[in-house]
Each structure stands twice: as C-alpha cells, then as structure tokens.
Amino acid sequence: MKKILLTLMVFGSFGAFAEDTLETTQASNPILIDVRTDAEWNDGYIETAIHIPLDKILQKIEFATENKEQTIYLYCRSGKRSAKAEKALQSIGYINAKNIGGIKQASSSLQLKITNE
After folding, report:
1. Residue 70 is part of which domain span?
2. Which residue, among 95, 99, 100, 101, has the nearest Cα to 27 in the 3D structure?
C-alpha cells in the first residue's frame, strides 16, 4: 500500500496531506510541497503536491521525507512563504530544499496542472 501511495504521489495526480504519506522518497525524485494555508490548499493546489503549511513545516517534514538530500520544491501563493520554508528546512539540514515561487509560476515551470480534486 505504501508503494502505491508513493507512486501516486510522485507520478500521479494525487494531492495529499503529509501525514498520509509516511514513505521516504528517493533523492532523485523531487517532492513538491505546498506551504500555503488549509483554505488556500482547498481552493486549488498543484497536482502531485503534498500540503504542509509553513507554520508546521519543521514538525511535519519527516512525514514527507527523512532524507536530508531529497530534492524538495516549495511553493506558496507568491513565493514569500516558500522562501521562509526553504530557509527553515535548510537550517535543519535539508540541503536541496528549493523555493520555486508562487503557485502559478511553479505550475508553469513544472508543467503541472492546478487542481482541487
């Protein structure tokens, strides 16, 4: 079951809360984290994203990955909160945490759709 969840998270159109995804992913498969609020997430998120609000990023990151070399792409509404999340994760050793800006910019850069399904 965990392998199915991981496959869906990485390759499918699957939005999930980090608490639902306990499997550690490989560093070569980037994970995408939405650091916006619950209300913003409910209005729409990038397919394959995991939701960890900024105020919970340090407490919940290990549910998404414990691998500190994992490539982690972070986005929010404009890029400001994801920049804070990037610095916070880097401060605890996640060396490949990267702010990729706001949701529209991130969606375009990654060529992934914004959904609310």
Report:
1. 2-115
2. 95
